[in-house]
């Protein structure tokens, strides 16, 4: 596949007259999305990104549009709001719950502790338009995204003359670069324009020309329609930025005119675009200039080579195939439609898997902010859910593929961000709840990492386990990478702070004698209280106790690895021993979501928070058969009542199915995911667009093929029936083991395991379970009976 792609890259580089589709028709395979027409709307445009900077490409032959993105485009600053409430309020709140006054508790929690609704959003970085003064008939149109090399291409003929545009978002050179070429004798005539949408009718940028070949767009992110405490809160300040663009040409002329660059008679042009912001650099304007000078000193071919090599270092680690790719000759939107019409397309399933990896590499790189609800791709001033960092599943789901798909470095932004959040979370714990030790984080946050509670409704805002859930990623990062330094210096300190908060938050329940967490809510969901009216706050909820148990267990495991045995671990053990259980079965055999088997107003709710312990947690496994069965029942009930209504919820289902070895349901949920939740550009739809489903899907696919959460490796635990032949390589299991699997007629044909260290590992395939020895860096190749094919 790589050699084929390289061949393709060479073909496309040397031949303007031969587009990718022509090459493909000649039997060259490539991981690509492709279309026969320009994007009419944003959900048809194609994303490129370097982790921080990105664009959505429309490919319009008349006026080409690149909608621009940068990950720190936020209004406001770190100072917005403070924690609310006091320790006395917390005592009063708990008393209301103890007295069964849950509706009063619901009101009280919001009145006393919440900043109510806050609207301040991640925003678009603006738009780049290339106005081709084009007359003539456009034929042979092609628009594609090569996932292998992370290059977008638009090509077509106008009156027989070939036009080719290539776009990359380079991480190594930190720029967007666009190359344009034509075979037309008279060259291309076009204007280059930069702009950014108004904020409530107020201009947000000033565009000027510089020298004869540069555009400079200066601005600051504002949010005049901002809301805080449910009240208008115009934000007139925010992150400052400069976007700088330079055009170079072969042949023809460039003239600056009134904030526009006019290019005439150009046979070849390269446009370099950089954006720097005050979030990252005090001297962001000087940095932008420096960045532009550096990138513009290189040719497009050189930049493309550097970019593809850098991108490939991540992307090429994994290869997934389910057999034939014959349908590659069909445009992606037509294939998708065919799928939506009922014809399952296995190769498109592998493309969507690869796309998840592509999107993560493009939206989360070392030193950037983590991928938000839209990754980095956002055309709004006020985005859905502010395109922020929701901590009650969405941000975490974004990072589910990172470890299993062998992209552990890409988690770095999540940890850098979470460490900032931890600092603010300590303040919130003290100020809001009077808890002196540790840190708390609520259901959502943004670039400035506030940890306090904000929402006007208790059922979504008053959840306190954002930090607890993030702690799982720290521990898992260690389990996958075995990076002892990370464990000692990053993971354990984070896990300890979260555990400390919980230790002081828990209350002794007079009836059960156990430690109970309350006030609790179950993310975004409500139950029917004794009077038949919906309520959110309860005395304990499944997810809260599952997360607390996990944080305690993982912190103790980490302490063991680090040889720590101190007052903290002693106290932790004692509290853990008497913790209220988070997995309790109701009479109907389902897992309870709250402290009692309440009636539910929304039986098919999209969140399955009480199954956290099944996935992404690991407390429910085959080794806990009753809970395992109950988890299946819980899922079935949700689905019978219209569950999995959003893209991310459906994607989560695939991982649940995988953990329950429910191949048939996995197959069905994959199909439904394609049929209901995937847009033409293969972005996941909540709706609207939300990238978590893309990442959840990629992670779910691996979960079907390999699991390692039970201290042994399960090979092909939940292979869907219709994935009868295929292979996957380069994926990771806990223990830092790289795994390759090939199968045919639904049976394993070859398993390969390699570890950088000599170690023993237990592996299970079907009913066979074996302990195997791995020698450092020596692949162990096994057959269907887990016997070695390599004799080592
Ligand atoms: C969670 C979900 C919503 C949405 C939002 C961004 O709160 O319940 O469905 O995905 O995050």
List the helices and strands and how they pair.
Elements: H1 2-14, H2 20-25, E1 32-35, E2 46-49, E3 53-57, E4 63-70, H3 87-98, H4 102-113, E5 126-132, E6 138-146, E7 151-158, E8 161-170, E9 175-182, E10 188-195, E11 205-210, E12 214-220, E13 227-228, E14 231-232, E15 240-250, E16 253-257, E17 260-266, E18 268-277, H5 284-296, H6 300-315, E19 319-321, H7 332-340, H8 346-363, E20 389-390, H9 394-398, H10 400-404, H11 412-433, E21 444-445, H12 458-461, H13 466-481, H14 484-505, E22 507-508, E23 515-516, E24 527-528, E25 534-535, H15 542-561, H16 567-577, H17 625-640, H18 647-659, H19 663-677, H20 692-705, E26 706-707, E27 713-715, E28 726-733, E29 737-744, E30 747-754, E31 759-765, E32 768-774, E33 780-782
Parallel strand pairs: 27-31
Antiparallel strand pairs: 1-6, 2-3, 3-4, 4-5, 5-10, 6-7, 7-8, 8-9, 9-18, 10-17, 11-12, 12-15, 13-14, 15-18, 16-17, 19-28, 20-21, 22-23, 24-25, 26-27, 28-29, 29-30, 30-33, 31-32
Helix pairs in contact: 3-4, 7-19, 8-20, 11-14, 13-14, 13-15, 14-15, 15-16, 18-19, 18-20
């Amino acid at each position: 596949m790589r050699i084929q792609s390289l061949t393709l890259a060479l073909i496309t580089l040397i031949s303007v007259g031969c587009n990718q589709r022509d090459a493909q028709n000649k039997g060259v395979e490539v991981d690509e999305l492709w279309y026969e027409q320009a994007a009419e709307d944003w959900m048809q445009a194609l994303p490129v990104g370097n982790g921080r900077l990105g664009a959505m490409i429309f490919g319009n032959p008349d006026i080409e549009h690149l909608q621009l993105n940068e990950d720190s485009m936020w209004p406001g600053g770190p100072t917005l709001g403070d924690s609310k409430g006091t320790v006395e309020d917390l005592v009063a709140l708990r008393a209301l719950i103890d007295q069964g006054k849950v509706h009063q508790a619901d009101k009280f929690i919001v009145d006393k502790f919440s900043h109510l609704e806050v609207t301040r959003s991640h925003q678009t970085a603006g738009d780049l338009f290339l106005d081709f003064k084009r007359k003539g008939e456009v034929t042979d149109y092609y628009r594609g995204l090569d996932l292998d090399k992370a290059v977008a291409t638009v090509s077509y003929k106008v009156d027989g003359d070939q036009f080719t545009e290539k776009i990359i978002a380079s991480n190594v050179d930190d720029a967007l670069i666009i190359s344009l070429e034509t075979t037309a004798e008279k060259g291309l005539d076009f204007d280059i324009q930069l702009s950014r949408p108004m904020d409530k009718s107020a201009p947000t940028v000033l565009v000027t020309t510089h020298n004869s070949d540069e555009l400079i767009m200066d601005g600051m992110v504002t949010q005049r329609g901002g809301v805080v405490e449910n009240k208008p809160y115009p934000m007139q300040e925010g992150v400052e930025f400069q976007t700088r663009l330079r055009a170079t040409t072969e042949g023809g002329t460039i003239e600056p005119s009134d904030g526009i660059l006019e290019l005439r008679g150009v046979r070849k042009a390269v446009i370099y675009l950089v954006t720097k912001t005050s979030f990252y650099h005090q001297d962001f304007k000087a940095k932008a200039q420096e960045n532009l000078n550096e990138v513009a000193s290189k040719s497009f071919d050189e930049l493309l080579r550097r970019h593809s090599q850098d991108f490939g270092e991540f992307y090429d680690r994994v290869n997934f195939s389910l057999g034939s790719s014959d349908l590659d000759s069909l445009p992606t939107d037509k294939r998708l439609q065919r799928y939506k019409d009922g014809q399952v397309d296995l190769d498109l399933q592998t493309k969507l898997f690869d796309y998840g990896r592509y999107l993560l590499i493009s939206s989360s790189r070392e030193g950037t902010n983590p991928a938000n609800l839209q990754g980095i791709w956002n055309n709004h001033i006020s985005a859905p859910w502010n395109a922020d960092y929701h901590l009650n599943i969405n941000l975490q789901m974004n990072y589910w593929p990172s470890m299993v798909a062998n992209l552990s470095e890409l988690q770095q932004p999540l940890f850098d961000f979470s460490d900032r959040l931890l600092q603010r979370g300590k303040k919130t714990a003290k100020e809001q709840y009077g808890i002196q030790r540790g840190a708390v984080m609520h259901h959502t946050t943004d670039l400035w990492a506030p940890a306090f509670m904000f929402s006007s409704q208790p059922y979504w805002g008053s959840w306190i386990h954002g930090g607890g859930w993030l702690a799982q990623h720290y521990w898992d990062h260690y389990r996958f990478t075995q990076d002892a330094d990370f464990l000692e210096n990053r993971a354990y300190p984070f896990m300890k702070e979260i555990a400390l908060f919980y230790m002081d938050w828990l209350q002794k329940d007079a009836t059960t004698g156990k430690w109970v967490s309350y006030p609790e809510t179950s993310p975004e969901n409500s139950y029917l209280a004794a009077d038949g009216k919906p309520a959110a706050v309860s005395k304990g909820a499944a997810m809260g106790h599952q997360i607390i148990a996990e944080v305690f267990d993982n912190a103790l495991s980490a302490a063991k690895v680090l040889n720590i045995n101190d007052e903290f671990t002693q106290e932790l053990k004692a509290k853990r021993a008497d913790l209220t259980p988070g997995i309790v079965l109701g009479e109907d055999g389902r897992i309870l979501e709250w402290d009692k088997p309440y009636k539910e107003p929304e039986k098919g709710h999209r969140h399955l928070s009480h199954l956290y312990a099944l996935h992404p947690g690991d407390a429910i496994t085959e080794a806990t058969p009753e809970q395992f069965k109950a988890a299946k029942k819980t899922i079935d009930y949700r689905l019978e009542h219209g569950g999995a209504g959003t893209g991310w919820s459906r994607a989560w289902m695939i991982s649940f199915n995988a953990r329950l070895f429910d191949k048939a349901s996995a197959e069905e949920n994959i199909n439904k995911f394609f049929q209901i939740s995937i847009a033409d550009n293969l972005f996941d739809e909540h709706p609207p667009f939300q990238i978590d489903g893309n990442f959840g899907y990629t992670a779910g696919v691996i979960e079907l093929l390999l699991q390692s959460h039970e201290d042994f490796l399960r090979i092909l635990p939940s292979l869907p029936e219709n994935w009868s032949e295929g292979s996957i390589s380069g994926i990771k299991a806990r223990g830092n083991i790289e795994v390759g699997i090939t199968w045919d007629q639904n049976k394993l044909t070859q398993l390969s395991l390699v570890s950088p260290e000599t170690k023993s590992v237990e592996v299970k395939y079907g009913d066979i379970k074996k302990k195997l020895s791995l020698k450092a860096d020596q692949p162990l190749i096994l057959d269907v009976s887990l016997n070695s094919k390599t004799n080592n």
